[in-house]
Write a structure and sequence with these properties.
The chain has 14 helices and 7 strands. The chain is an alpha/beta fold. The protein is elongated. The chain starts with a helix and ends with a helix. Belongs to the ParB family.
Length: 300
């Protein structure tokens, strides 16, 4: 009998019992949770058993990009697994990776590699939002909306939110302030018509009418971020208007003329009309270029 066999037999009954108990525990664990849904590992899961995350913050998926990913998956498979939580023995709920899941379905896959996690609804939302925020192709409005949802639905403070997403408080605040811009400006940020730099400049303007005016000029003239920042500085440098002693209501006809002029010149126009019928027209401008634009429209 070899020394190796003697050593094995000499371990004693307790060691053999420990081995048997360990083997039994492993078998019981395998029965309780099949290899296909082991927590913390990458598993192949039936796509048909995965339901979409109800807290998915991303709603727009680029069609061309989606098709490119589907074609890539057909050739090379899915490189980055999705993350799901187990609902029951044959049902999972998506935590993150909806774009990958959609592309895999389009590629004709029946199964998909996935991390299986346990999470309650708040953790599910928080993980989905954090993963979304970390995407490079996420537009600024989607980030802002995700930040707002984390504050409201996950009961977080701005400092805690900053820690979760690895951003300082001022960055978080700047994104949240985008939600206070007029809807048309927010739409331009979402659609990539103006940049985050343009948006940061517009945020510092307190008057919504002035924000809309600058927004119109950015789209019409293709203004750079530096130019918009200069115009905003000039706007802030303008002396504050003294409050009127008593606001005089304009007649319907005068109000309509004022609104039509404001639309024509893309700026806030003010008409002053006295009881004798005399008055003045005030057309403010934000820069020398803006003045030139107005004068050109007047054929000056």
């Amino acid at each position: 009998m070899s020394a190796e066999k003697k050593k094995g037999l000499g371990r004693g009954l307790s060691a053999l019992l420990d081995d048997s108990t360990s083997l039994l525990q492993h078998k019981q664990a395998a029965v309780a949770m099949p290899a296909s849904n082991t927590l913390g590992s990458v598993n192949e899961i039936q796509i048909a058993e995965i339901e979409v995350n109800p807290f998915q913050p991303r709603t727009d998926f680029d069609e061309h990009s989606m098709q490119e990913l589907a074609d890539s998956i057909k050739l090379q498979g899915l490189i980055q697994p999705i993350t799901v939580r187990r609902v029951n023995a044959h049902a999972y709920q998506l935590i993150s990776g909806e774009r990958r899941l959609r592309a895999s379905r389009r590629a004709g896959l029946n199964t998909i590699p996935a991390y299986v996690r346990t999470a309650n609804d708040q953790q599910l939302l928080e993980m989905a939002l954090i993963e979304n925020i970390q995407r490079e192709d996420l537009n600024a409005m989607e980030v802002a909306i995700s930040f707002q949802r984390m504050l409201e639905e996950c009961n977080l403070k701005q400092e805690e939110l900053g820690e979760r997403v690895s951003k300082n408080r001022s960055t978080v605040t700047n994104y949240l302030r985008l939600l206070k811009l007029p809807p048309s400006v927010q739409a331009s940020i979402r659609d990539g018509e103006i940049s985050m730099g343009h948006a940061r400049a517009l945020i510092t303007v307190n008057d919504p009418a002035a924000q809309l005016h600058l927004h119109h000029l950015i789209l019409e003239q293709g203004l750079s971020v530096r130019k918009v920042e200069e115009m905003v500085r000039n706007l802030h440098a303008m002396p504050a208007k003294k409050p009127a002693k008593k606001a005089e209501s304009l007649s319907f006809q005068v109000q309509k003329i004022q609104d039509d002029l404001a639309s024509k010149f893309s700026t806030k126009v003010r008409l002053k009309v006295s009881s004798r019928g005399s008055g003045s027209i005030e057309i403010p401008f934000l820069s020398q270029d803006d003045l030139g634009r107005i004068l050109e429209m007047l054929d000056w």
